[in-house]
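re: ur question from earlier - yeah i can do the single chain one, its not a big deal. heres the input i used so u can compare w yours
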Amino acid sequence: MATFLYKLGRISFRRRHLVALIWVALLTLAGVGAASAPAAGNSSFSIPGTEAQKAFDLLEQRFPGMSADGATARVVFKAPSGEKMTDPGNRATVRETVKELADGSEVASVTDPYQAKAVSKDGTIAYAQVSYKVSGMELDDASKDALEDTAQDARQAGLTVEIGGDALQAVPHTGSSEIIGIAVAAVVLVITFGSLVAAGLPLLTALVGVGIGVSAITALAGTLDLGSTTSTLAMMIGLAVGIDYALFIVSRYRAELAEGRDREEAVGRAVGTAGSAVVFAGLTVVIALVGLSVVNIPMLTKMGIAAAGTVAIAVLIALTMIPALLGYAGRRVKPAGEKGKLLGRAKAQEKPAKPNLGTRWASFVVRRPIAVLLLGVVGLGAAAVPAASLELGLPDDGSQPTSTTQRRAYDLLSEGFGPGFNGPLMVVVDAKDSDDPKAAFTETGDEIKGLKDVVTVTPPAPNKAGDTATITVIPGSKPSSVTTENLVHGIRDAGAGIKADTDANVLVTGSTAMNIDVSEKLNDALVPYLVLVVGLAFLLLIVVFRSILVPLKAALGFLLSVMAALGAVVAVFQWGWLADLMGVEQTGPVMSMMPIFMVGVVFGLAMDYEVFLVTRMREAHVHGEKPAQAVVTGFRHGARVVTAAAVIMMAVFAGFIGSSESMVKMIGFGLAIAVFFDAFVVRMAIVPAVLALLGRTAWWLPKWLDRALPNVDVEGEGLRTASGDPDRELVRT
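and the output i got, formated as C-alpha cells:
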C-alpha cells in the first residue's frame, strides 16, 4: 500500500499538468451536467415493509386516483373578532377560495368546509382540505405558489388564513453560517501552516471535491430519483473530510521537507505514509455511510451513498491533486518549523523549538494515565446522562417555529377542533376475502369506538367494488404524543380479533401512523447497523494496526463519544438548554433517525482521528521506540494537525446549525459536538492514557492472525527498507 501510494504521489507531482487537467475536466463535466439537467425536485418517499406503506399501496389499488399518499394542505380560516365563519360575507370568501384552490394540474380534490362540516362548534374556525396527486416531496413549486397566493387573497378579504400539512415542504437553506464555518476553517489552516499558500491548498481541493460530488448528484437527480435534500449530507461530510484529508497530506509533506528531502521525494513519502492513513480513514467513513442502506429507507440510503461517493472523491483528490498542487506551489510551501510568507513578512525559526504542546500533553498523560482516563470517562458519562431521557419522534407541524404558517395552522386547528385533529388516522379495512364485507366494516368501526383516546370515528367509506373501506379516526391527543402511538397499536391489536371473526385485514396509515412506523423501523435497525458498521471497521482496523486491543479501544471510545453527543442533543433540542443560542425555536422529541445517523457518521469520523493519530504512534513503535515514547512521538507529530482537523470539522458542521430546517440544524449540532468529544476527550486524552497503561500489550496480535492478515504497511516501513538505509532518500521507484 505505502509503496504504491508513494509511486502515485511522485507521478502526480511530476505529471502535475495532466493531473490538474483531469480534475478540472471532471469538475467542468459535472458542472455542465448539473446545469443542463432538469431542476431537482423532491424524491419519492416510501418506507418499504411498514404497515402504513402497505396500506398506502393497497389504497392505490382499490381506490384508483385517490392518491392516498399524496400531499395534503389544510387551509385554515379564522373569522375576525366578533364574527363567525358562517356569516354570509365570510362564507362567500371561503367558497371563492375553495374554487381557486381546485384549479391546478396536481390538485386531486378540495373539500368545502360547509359541506364537509369542517367548522368548529363555536363557528370561529373552519378549514378546507386540499389533496394532491403527488407526494409533498414531489409537488411542483408552481402548485405551492398557487396555494400561498390563494391564501393571501383570502387574507386581503379580512380573514386569518394559515396553511398546514405537508404540501409546503421546502428545501432547507443553511444561511450565512455555513460560509462562516468555511472562514473559520481557513483561519485555522493559516495558523497551522503559517502560510496562505499551504493553507489554501486543502480549501481549494475540498471545494473542488464537493463541487464534483454535488454537481454529479444534481446531474443524476432525475435519473436516480435523488431529492434536492440529498446533496446536503454530501456537502456537509465532503467539506469536512476533504479539508482534513488534504491537511494531513500537506502536513506530512512539510515534515518530510524538514528532514532534508527534496520536494518530489517528500511528496512521495507524504502520500505513502499519511496517504495510507487517508485511504483507511476514508474507507471507515464510506462503510459507515453505505451501511445506512441496512435501514431500508430509500431516502436515507440515497443520502448515505451520495455522501460516500463524495468522500471517495475527497480521498482521490488528496492522493493525486494535492501532490500536483504542491508541485505548482514549489518553495512557497515551507518545511515544518519554518514560517511561510504571511501578510508580506517571512520569518525563519533557526533555534531549536521547545517541545510543542502535543508533546508536553502526551508526556503528562503518560505520567498520570489513570487520572486522565478516569476524568475523561466520568466527564463523557456526565454529558451522556440526558440521553437516558431520549424521546424519539419525527417532526410534525407542531414542532415548527411559531413564525411559520404551518405552526399557526396547527395551533388554530387544535384550538377549534382539539389537539388530535392535527393527526388523523386512516384505517383501511380490506374485506376482499370476507363473506360479509359490510359486517366487517361495521365491526371495525365499533371496535375502534371502544378504544381509549378516540374522539371521532367516521362511518366506513367503501370503494366501488365494496371490498375495501376507509375509516378516519380522530385521536384525543396530539400526533407526537405517546397516547396517540398507543392508540395506533391498539387499533392494530384489535385488527387481529377482527381478522379472526371476519377474515378482513385492518391496516392503519396516515402521516401520524407513518411517523410511528418509521421511528420503530429506525429503532429496530440501530443494533444490526451498529454491529455491521463497527464490526467491519473493527476488522479493517485490525489490518491497519495489527492489534486486537487498539481497535477494541477505538470502538469503545466511539461509543462513549456518541452517547455523550446524544446527551448534548437531548439537553438542547429536547430540554431546551441553550436553545436561544442555538436558534431552536421549538423543543420536542429528538428526530428518530438521529441516533442511527450519528452512529454512522460519527463512527466514520472518529476512526479518522484514530487512524491519523495512532498510525504515527505505531510507526514510531515499529521503528524501535518504547510504547510510552511512541505515544509521545505520535502526539509530537500528529496532535497539532489532528487538533486543527477537528476544529475545522467542528466549524464546518456548526455552520449547518444556521439551517432553516430543524433536521439539518440538529444534525449539524450533533456532529459538531460529537467531533469535539471524540477528538479532544477520547482521542487526545483517553486513547494515550489507555495505550500508556497497556504498554506493549496494546500491540499484541496472535501469531496465527499476524500471518493470515495482509500487510498493508500503513506506517511506510517498506519505504525505509527499500533502500536499505532508513535515513536515505528513496530516489528510485
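DSSP finds 23 helices and eleven strands in the chain. not sure if urs matches, ping me
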